[in-house]
Design a protein that fits this description.
This protein is α/β, with parallel strands linked by helices. Helix content is 36%, strand content 23%. The chain has a 10-stranded mixed β-sheet, with helices on both faces. Strands 16-17-21-18-19-20 form a 6-stranded mixed β-sheet, sandwiched between helices.
């Protein structure tokens, strides 16, 4: 089935899981292109409300008749093969396309498709670049893995021939893309339940690089990335701190909030000064990638600097939720030791009395295979609290538990419910502390509970 050709002939699409964060942007783009849409989703969400707001028919139950009239069915990777709509579509001979495959087809409809890949930083960099390009007048379309306050959501439908999207390596989904411009931010050992080892991950990124048609931007400071693309014959543009890179940061300074300024150079020539409004060295790397691509596309250094300074982050990326009782509560998506290290290091450089890491381990395989690395990263915090491991897609064949990780972290506390965690933290956190909930699952729910309890504590103290 040639999906690209088929999309030229049909006009009626049905999306299974249309409210998902990865599905909603694709539906919005196809709607803007004039396609008739319908969808189904049984989970309420802000993105689903957005879809319904367009007047798109959405069914809250998965039923065979929902595919009536559809000429193609697009389904989320979370949909099971016995989904009634998927089964019915195949029975009727209606083409069915998994979300990552459809993303590849959609991005090929844009002359300048930009795919942001890497083990860490994809969402932040995609958001940074999208904001810079939108703010600089390029009017791109964008598909982002988190909510960007600048656009009020995780997607933007522009009128130009540019689209920016994330390219996720898990189960090789990014090999469905054929971008004009690709970015590799870094390569690290992750998703070992699928890849097995770092060499296989590097091979996958090498294949991704070879699918790129115009230019490849890489982190020249990252040895794994450099090794992975060494045989790629495509034009490569590098970024990093080393002055041998095409784009590099120099004269870096930071304040007590770990917010940084640096001079942006290209091939030895200073372009502008960048002042970031998000903390951490990792965000300088993300910003350098965004700067390099935006400048390549023709954005002026001044416009790049102005729009990057306005970037205040993405939902669940060091997101400050509130400061009741002078205790700051924040939430972050970090779920890999490298990400934890970057986030907690940035937090420790800020002007807080103590830093609490309230961490929800994400998958048994990742926790077991990177146990010592997790312990080392979490030990950066002054206080560490662990929830139970979030299983996601796995059975605990590794016989791993949060207590195994806690034993490797001095003073670490393990609690089995969010309610217990919220009680413990709200009673023991002190004014001037930062409480940072961290993880790729639903630990943000616990953040909300902690915030609510601290607000109650603040209310009681103010009425004594």
């Amino acid at each position: 089935m040639d999906i690209d050709l088929l999309l030229e002939k049909i006009k009626r699409l049905h999306f299974i899981g249309i409210g998902g964060s990865g599905m909603c942007p694709l539906a919005e783009i196809m709607r803007a292109e004039g396609y008739e849409l319908s969808g189904s989703d049984n989970a309420s969400s802000e993105t689903l409300d957005r879809i319904k707001g367009y007047g798109i028919p959405v069914y809250d139950r998965h039923k065979p008749e929902n595919v009536d009239g559809a000429e193609m069915v697009v389904y989320t990777a979370a949909a099971k093969q016995d989904n009634p709509e998927l089964v019915e579509a195949r029975k009727r001979g209606i083409p069915t396309v998994e979300r990552s495959v459809f993303l590849g087809a959609v991005t090929r409809r844009y002359k300048r498709s930009i795919a942001i890949s890497g083990t860490h930083g994809k969402t932040s960099t995609t958001a940074m670049l999208s904001q810079v390009l939108i703010g600089s007048g390029f009017d791109p379309s964008a598909i982002i893995g988190g909510k960007l306050p600048y656009i009020g959501g995780n997607s933007y439908v522009g009128q130009s021939n540019i689209i920016v999207c994330e390219a996720c390596e898990y189960v090789d989904t990014f090999l469905q893309l054929t971008p004009a411009i690709s970015v590799i931010l870094n390569i690290d050992a992750d998703h070992l339940d699928y890849f097995g080892n770092l060499d296989n991950i590097k091979k996958s990124f090498s294949k991704f690089a070879d699918l790129t048609t115009e230019v490849l931007f890489i982190n020249g400071d990252d040895k794994n990335t450099v090794d992975a693309v060494k045989n790629c014959e495509l034009n490569k543009i590098t970024f990093g701190f080393d002055k041998n890179n095409n784009y590099y940061a120099d004269n870096v300074t930071s304040d007590c909030h770990a917010l940084q300024k640096f001079d942006l150079y290209k091939d030895g020539e200073k372009l502008t000064e960048i002042s970031l409004s998000v903390p951490g060295k990792h965000n300088i790397y993300n910003a350098l990638a965004a700067c390099a691509v935006a400048h390549y596309l023709g954005a002026s250094p001044r416009a790049i600097a102005e729009n990057l300074h306005k970037f205040t982050g993405v939902h669940r990326r060091f997101e400050i939720l509130g400061s009741p009782c002078n205790i700051t509560v924040a939430d972050d998506f970090a779920h890999h030791p490298t990400e934890l290290c970057a986030t907690l290091t940035a937090a420790k450089e800020m002007d807080f009395k103590r830093v609490w890491a309230v961490f929800q381990p994400h998958t048994y395989s990742r926790t077991a295979m990177l146990l010592d690395d997790f312990a080392k990263a979490l030990s950066i915090a002054d206080k560490c609290v662990l929830s139970e491991i979030l299983a996601v897609r796995e059975e605990n064949t590794y016989n791993i538990h949060s207590e195994d990780l806690a034993q490797k972290i001095e003073g670490c506390v393990c609690l089995n419910t969010f309610e217990k965690i919220a009680d413990y933290v709200s009673k023991n956190a002190q004014p001037g502390d930062l409480v940072l909930t961290i993880g790729g699952g639903n630990i943000y729910v616990c953040a909300g509970m902690i915030l609510k309890k601290l607000e109650g504590r603040q209310y009681l103290s103010s009425n004594e």
